[in-house]
Model the fold of this input.
Amino acid sequence: MRAPHRTARSGWTLIEVVLASTFTVGVFAKAAFVMESALGLASDETASMHYEDQARRVMDRIGLAIMGSDRDTLFPQIEELHTNSIRYSFSLGLEDGEVVWSSPEEIRFLNAAGTGAIEWRENPGAAEERRVVWSNLVSPLLEGEEVNGLDDNGNGLIDEDGLSFVLEGNRIVIRLTLRRPEVDGRLVVESVEHVVYCRN
Amino acid sequence: MRTRLRSRLARRGSALVFAVMSVMVVSILAAGFLQLSMGVTRRLNGYSDTQQAINLAEAGLAEAYSGLAVARTGNVGTMEAPAVMGGGLLWVEAEHHASGLVELECTAMYGTGRATLGLVCEPVGLGVASLGFFTEEDLRLNPDVRLDSYDSQVGTYADQMNTALNNKGTIGSNGDVSVASGNTIMGDIVYGPTGKLSVASGSVVTGGSSARPEEEVLPPVVVPDIPLQKAVKYSSGTPMVVPPGQVGYAGLDIGKNTTLILKGPLDLVVNSLILRLGAQLVFDTSAGPVQLFVNESLDFSTSSVVTTSSQVTSDSLIFVAAPEGKSVNFGAKSQFYGFIYAPEADVHLSAQYELYGGLVCKELQLAAQGKMHYDLSLGATLSGQLPILHSWRVVDLPQQVAARRIDPFQLLGLDPNELLPPAQSHQDQVLDIRYVDTDGRTTSYFGLESDFDWSIVGSLLYGVRDGVAFYLPEDYALRGDLADDPLVDLVDSSLSSKQLRDALLAASPCSAESLTAACLRDPPMSTSDLKSVLDANDPLAPQTLLAAVDSTSLDSSALKDVLLANSPLPVEVLDAVLLRDPPLSLSDLTKVLTSQ
Done:
């Protein structure tokens, strides 16, 4: 007896082809979906991390500057209310046996055309003024706040800017919100709060 | 052939392709997430390392700052041998300024974090007066000089003779110190870092001696900017009175038998001041202190007189800003209660110029039989008072620290197990303490702090670092349990048997306590040395005789001689003689008993 010719019967039936194609498309579609989600998440994470980093860096600079300042030289001196700028002098150490203090410096919030920035100024208003922008991603208002005369975010402050200072004795509470729209239209918002004590 | 074809056909399919693709997709995703996770971790670690380094720097500053309150130098560790704490390391550098302010800078390293913080503070009560009697050059004392101490806030010098406070003098130099025969130094001697101490036989030094860890820097005299009137040569029978305020003269020449009264509160600046024969200078501090600034020369002739209206030593201050090489002469007859500061001058002090207070100068010529009594209240008694904080700041990182952000132990090539914590990393100092040890014995230590084991201290009675008292209770002199006999301290010191013999002979008659201590000394005195001391102090008190019987220094013959010299003996001494172990020889015992 002769063995049947298997080659003639090899290959997929139409049903097999349809099923295989369906499964293949399904698997690829799922993989693409997972990839896209993962990349989106990674992108979110990266953006969030980036802004959190920047917020922390800026906050550290502000915090250290104010920590080293003389409480009596802070301006404005208004307690309990929020301001969006602060002027200070800090210790430079000893020179000829005397404590030397820096020329006045200022950290302030600038809001122009809906874009907020933090600007540091040395000798503000003087001829030899120097200025550096520490960040230009500052939100016009602190996270959760709206201009409506109410305390929307429940922090006890009303309509505070994206950078705010509150003096409470020797304590200074600093709040900062960075905000930036991504290319895909998403809005990344990062807020940090820091409490420092004037050490001088 | 057909079989091979069939086999190849049976292995046809695409599952492997899909599987490989799936694995690749998953791998790419996993690698991406891993990368992301590592980035997050790295950023968080970097941030927390920096925070930790700031905390460590704060801790280092706090350690140095609180150290200043107990007379530490403020230096904690070094970059080569930093202090280890909380997995990081730190060191503090202190810079002492002439203005009295101290600048501390602490650098801390933790992981990749680095921080340097600084503060400026003012230790309470520190000053050059805490140096006691100090010369920048070698100090050579002439024979028969007495240097001791007292505390003017406790009472008069006379009331404190032979108390514990009489025994706390500090003699110091940046160079050598030579103690001549007949000198009585009631206190400690601190010579220069590379200097040496020589003590002649027949002198008494009741305290310890040590090299200071580093040279003392004497700040220059800051003379107030007061306009100088023309020079005055005064010889009227009416006293010349300089009124309170700020007054300056190009010169003051006070003639024979003429009186100059300086009425405080007064800052007086003179280029030269001369007291001629019989002239008198009075520091009238009844209404305030008098500060006398001398720019060029000062000459108090031998038969002139200097007096102070009160015994408050901080009220009468003489600052000599004479240029280097100039000598100033205190030849007057005086019991001067005050402080003399002449960082550039060669000071000549006559034997009749008895100084109660302190003296710091470049060179000192103290005449034979001169007397100086250091007032402890002039020195710093910190009593744990924290320094006054003037400012705090963030300091730029040193270049060598900022350069490489790797593990600090690896960077500096250090083994954390070989480093000390901050509390034990303070710069070494000369420590002078009296304490009750854990066995309940009262004892003293004088020497480098690094050689002292603080764990044996049960309670501290007083403590001094580099001449600055960091613990001295106000009732120290009044507490019977603490008011030690200076000669007992002498016996307990590290003097050799011969040195101790000479010192005790020079100080004879000695107290019963000191003789008792000498009999029971460990290591014991030699037989001949102890016998010489006991012979010089006949008759001996019963307690001393009992100690002599128990002494390992005295052999049968020497003890017999001592007992015979003090016969008839009290009953308790005779009992002790009979029970002695080892017993007296039969012939010696017979002689002692027959002499009763």
About this structure: Chain A is about 25% helix and 35% strand. Helices of chain A lie at 14-67.
